[in-house]
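Chapter summary example.
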Amino acid sequence: MRKPDGVIEIFLQPGEHYFGDRYTRLRTVLGSCVSLVFWHPQELVGGMCHFMLPSRGCRSSNGPDGRYADEAMQLMLGEIHATGLNPAAFRLRIFGGGNMFPELTRRHDRHIGQKNVEAALALMKNHCLTCVASHVEGYGHRNLLFDVWSGHVHLRHSTITPEKNKLTGRKACQQSR
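The structure predicted for these 177 residues follows.
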């Protein structure tokens, strides 16, 4: 989709989050990490977080750290509450959690991508948030682009074939809003 004039593009690194208005486009690349994408269809505001691990496992006095699922959710909900909007009015989507090293994962072991997805789903349930779309787990990485002005999420998934460790490109487009 063509980008309207005046739109800023933000590229999220692991552990970062951003919340913006209709003049915002967000991008990130996910492997085993997970992104939660929030969008409010009436107010045209939204945001994305990119976390790496389910939980820190211990408390820190330094404030929330977006590298961890629970703390990334806390940061996103803080942004939403600052707008005065109800988090339940946002459309929430989840992406990522891929297995980047299938040769190293035993058949029945849960890899870190699965654990990240499980953490995200548990957090959504705990906060009474509903997921409207997802593209999670599998093999390989995802390039994700979110246009806050339209709510469109564009996804390109590059899969790894476990047996041959062969990288293949597959383009998918999430048009859900």
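To summarize the output: The first helix runs from residue 69 to 83.
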